[in-house]
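lol ok so funny story. i was supposed to be doing the assay writeup but got distracted and ended up predicting the structure for this chain instead. priorities right. anyway since i did it might as well share w the group, maybe its usefull for someone
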Amino acid sequence: MTEQRQEEPREEPQEERQGAAGGAPAPEALARAWDALVATARRTVADGLVVGTSGNVSVRVGNTVLVTPSGVAYDDLGPADAVGVDLDGRRLLGELTPTSELPMHLEIYRATTAGAVVHTHAVHATAVSTLVPELPPVHYMTSALGGPVRVAPYALYGTDELAAHMLRALRDRTACLLQNHGTVAYGDTLAQAYDRTAQLEWMCRLWLTAVSVPGRTPTLLSPDQLDEVTEKLKGYGQRK
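and the output, tada:
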């Protein structure tokens, strides 16, 4: 995956994105969230996580879920193309058809406190999804995703069956692999969901590289070692 240095899309504070008292979000908040969503979707292409119109991105603003439309190149999306639905999939905003993977996005929002979801067809992660039932814990960043990343069994894209498989694979996790398909990751913000997606693809590439060495087997981290990392990560970063 080629490293890209791009300006991060500006995201609104959690309380502003959710709207006053959980009510209908202000048009300005929706517009800002849509701009950030489009920037994130374009980044998935620039970073090689998707090709063409594959993959999709969503962000929750109050009870409105903004989501990329089906079959439209991200570079062609503008402010007038915003698509929004409620948690039951009923259209609230826009004329374009939502992504075919809408059931997956909505299942995550209904089951978690996610603020954003990113789905990609990342090459290394998709390759791993065809080989093992879960990504072996080859790196300590496994803990940042809640533990060893599971692979959801294959089901036809865009179906409730796929969404159900995905939700089971996400139990106590913030990302999973979709067998013969790709990745799903969620977070409080678009930036966090995207970062988890990129971390997952990197770990899959790392594992594939390690297991490709003839006659050698990569060492893996134990559950106790992962628990130790989980505790340490709680204090990671800057206090503001």
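Helices lie at 14-18, 27-46, 102-111, 123-129, 160-169, 190-211, 223-233. The chain has a mean pLDDT of 91.
back to the writeup now i swear
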